[in-house]
Amino acid sequence: MRKLIDSLIVTGAIGFGTIVVLVLVFLAAGVIDMPKLVAIGDILGGRRPAVTPEPTPSATALPLSEVQQAESAKVMAEAIVAQELEFKRREEELQQMNQQLETLAAELDKRRKGLDLREQAVEKTIGDFLAEQTAKAEARKKEGFKDSLEVFEAMRPDDAGRLLAAFKDEEVVEYLRAFEPRFSAKVVNSLAKIGPEGQTYAANLQKLLREGGETSGALPDFSGLEGE
Length: 228
Description:
This protein has 228 residues and is mostly helical. The chain has 7 helices and no strands.
């Protein structure tokens, strides 16, 4: 759109310059006089002519002398050259503006890509950090579980059962799976003796163990071996 407007401006300037040159030539040749020139100016300016020009009876077009012809040709040639130079200057300005716009677009695209890369790097850094923290937490959990496992296995089965009774069922099953089978069976038997719901609780633990695939059936009953 800007190119079209600039082209129209240049075209209008050329057309106006040509009209001015022709008026000067006609004025010098005696084709028009000052009243007519004023009337033409009013018409071009969108105004109603102040006076209606009347032809001058004695106004007769005289042939131009060689000097006048040469001068008129020189004036017209200079006007054309000036118009061409102006048109060329405007065209160069448009080309420079286009180059600036292309450079700006390329710079914006470069910055956008840089921001995308930076955002990806930040997301990766956050992801790596979270993964590292999760791995450390899992390691601490496993280490803590290992320490707790050693503590439980150092206890009597009845004491271990009383402590595990306060844990969640899933946590109890996790310890039972990690215990040595004989110790695990003794702990289950001790849990079955805790309170009126002990048998139901122990049966539920046996079910969870079977569903987990750790055992193919109920744990053996080693209730008579607590003193071993």
